[in-house]
Design goal:
Helices cover 64% and strands 5% of the residues. The chain is mainly α.
Length: 491
């Protein structure tokens, strides 16, 4: 105990660590503050949650194999131990998201210096995409946590050669990242290319690096064999990453906008300034032929390659992306913004040292403010969305038996809240009439929240002998603009 206190005391003597502790507390506090701000879950959230209830509580639901298995598995385990919805979100979402802030600091310190680590962690602590999706059951920041943890271990073990243990852990955490979100594997290709450029083919002689592959297989092998057993293919996860080429979808050039949207206007200026430090890479090719590059050049090289690979994957392969899918790109964006901030510090320090410090503090605080404001606005705009879908599902749960069947286009949400067997509407009215003869459903839900075939909206008017409206939610007090209607099938 005394030894631990001594280590903590020594650690706190470094002002960088004290500042980081303050930043981390901000990160955790603001995430806890928004923990229960949303009144209902969305489709993707409910997909994970319903899968968890299916595995651990026998709620009828079909797991989608394109979803990583680790996140719903973690949710189910926590629910099984009796945790409430908010406490499950805290452990499965809030803590990993806060861990990303911690790893941003550690990586910044390892790849650049402590100042870059601190500034980038400060920006990440209130990153608008992070705060918005941490308030929801999203696996994106759990996957990012494992990716950054794997990268940290790679940098400590392979690049800096601190310990072979880091190399083994690199493979294991990358495997966890993969079974959380298959997209996590992209970082592997960046690292392979990085090793080819910086170490040429000598890395192939690193037996510990080969051993890390075995550690990757620890979570990977059980996962793919489980997919094979239940879905007939080792690559069932790839259904969510299929090419859009066959559908002639245009290239997703709009993805480039996130280089501006992620940092928000103010930090974007610092980001552009920080990009000037890449001059050695873009205007000098000699680093390719050198066996030893500077730490900063190595770090810049990796992030440039990784960013181009990730962005290229979404532009040319998936041809589209949401902000949360690209969160790995935000890490180098904040690193380069931090480097831009330090360039201003170095220039101002020549004039006045204290003024340089105050300038950095001011820039960081203004950048954090814009990030938090963007997050707050977005969260408050969306925090009551899909409330009617939740209320309808809870009403169905209270007014049905566990064996009853419900038809709804909001399948995951209705399944999660009602804990009933929920089916989607078939393509045609004729097929639906045939289905209900077999399934004998109790309720049918029609709403404006999901896309329905046109025949669904007119079905009641054509078949009043089959249905009775039993509850509804409206956009106006006069109840002339229906948002969601529950119909009961007549016996």
């Amino acid at each position: 105990m005394t030894e631990l206190k001594t280590k903590i005391s020594v650690w706190l003597k470094d002002w960088h660590n004290r500042v980081f502790l303050f930043i981390f507390c901000i990160a955790l506090a603001v995430r806890v503050y928004y923990l229960s701000v949303n009144t209902a879950v969305w489709w993707d959230e409910a997909d994970y949650l319903s899968s968890a209830l299916h595995w651990f509580f026998n709620v009828p639901y079909n797991y989608n194999p394109q979803r990583g298995v680790f996140f719903p598995l973690l949710l189910g385990i926590l629910f099984k131990f009796g945790f409430t919805e908010n406490s499950v979100k805290f452990f499965a979402v809030v803590l990993p998201s806060s861990g990303v802030v911690f790893l941003t600091y550690l990586l910044g310190k390892q790849m650049y210096n402590k100042n870059v680590g601190l500034i980038s962690a400060a920006f990440m602590s209130v990153f608008w995409t992070s705060l918005f999706w941490t308030a929801r059951f999203s696996n994106d920041f759990l996957a990012l946590f494992f990716q950054l943890l794997a990268l940290y271990c790679f940098w400590r073990g392979v690049v800096k050669e601190h310990s072979k243990i880091f190399i083994f852990l690199f493979g294991f955490f990358l495997g966890l990242g993969f079974i959380t979100r298959a997209q996590s594997i992209l970082i592997t290709f960046s690292l392979l290319l990085f090793l080819l450029i910086t170490q040429h083919f000598s890395f192939l002689k690193n037996k510990h690096l080969w051993a890390s592959v075995l550690f990757f297989f620890i979570p990977f092998i059980p996962y793919v064999f489980w997919l094979k057993k239940y879905f007939g293919s080792f690559f069932a996860f790839s259904t969510g990453y299929s090419s859009q080429i066959s559908s002639a979808a245009p290239f997703g050039w709009s993805i480039v906008k996130y280089f501006y949207l992620f940092p928000a206007p103010f930090i974007f200026i610092l980001f552009l300034l920080g990009l000037t430090t890449l001059a050695d890479i873009f205007f000098g090719l000699d680093f390719i032929f050198k066996k030893k590059q500077s730490q900063e050049t190595n770090s810049d090289l990796f992030w440039v390659m990784n960013t181009l690979l990730v962005v290229g994957f979404f532009i040319f392969w998936l041809r589209g992306a949401e902000d949360r899918w690209l969160v790995l790109v935000a890490v180098p964006v904040f690193f380069f913004a931090a480097k831009g901030c330090m360039l201003l510090y170095d220039y101002t320090k020549k004039v006045h040292g204290h003024a340089a410090i105050l300038l950095v503090v001011f820039l960081v605080m203004i950048g954090m403010y814009f990030q938090f404001h963007a997050a707050k606005t977005l969260i408050e705009e969306k925090n009551t969305s899909y409330q009617q879908v939740k209320d309808a599902a809870l009403w169905i749960k209270a007014n049905s038996q566990t064996i009853d069947t419900v038809y709804s286009a909001s399948g995951p949400q209705t399944s999660y809240y009602s804990e009933r067997n929920v089916l989607g509407f078939p393509t045609t009215e004729e097929a639906f009439l045939s289905e209900i003869q077999r399934s004998k459903p109790r309720y049918m839900v029609v709403s404006m929240f999901e896309r329905h075939s046109e025949w669904v909206y007119t079905f009641y008017n054509k078949h009043t002998e089959l249905l009775t409206p039993v509850n509804g939610w409206f956009a106006d007090e006069a109840k002339t603009q229906p948002l969601l209607i529950i119909f009961s099938f007549k016996e």
